[in-house]
Amino acid sequence: MIREDPALIDIMTRQHKTMSGKLEKETDEVNCFHGVVEGRVQRVGFRVFTREAARRHGIKGWVRNLPNGCVELHAVGDEISLTEFLTEVYQGPVLSHVSHIELKWQTSEEEFGSFDILR
Questions:
Q1: Which CATH class is domain 6-117?
Q2: Residues of the chain with pLDDT > 70: what percent?
């Protein structure tokens, strides 16, 4: 079942463009997104899951819990890797449930050495 979420639709559109060969951007341009993940995302291993997914996809940045029960993340990498990473984040770990991701895609010159869990 596909969730009717604008962020997921954006992910799927980007993946379709990637698979169809219409997305031609390469790693010369650093892309990033800043997101707030809503749902059952705290006390379920979500930040660790996100960090491991980021490492698998070569994404740099950070993830942290917010006081309101959401999780905030900032991810930097090439657009294709970010899209694949975001697909995994949307699925989350087994005990989680992502109801919505508020995303802001942007170009960034900010550099990170790794993907960290902030406290």
A1: alpha beta
A2: 75
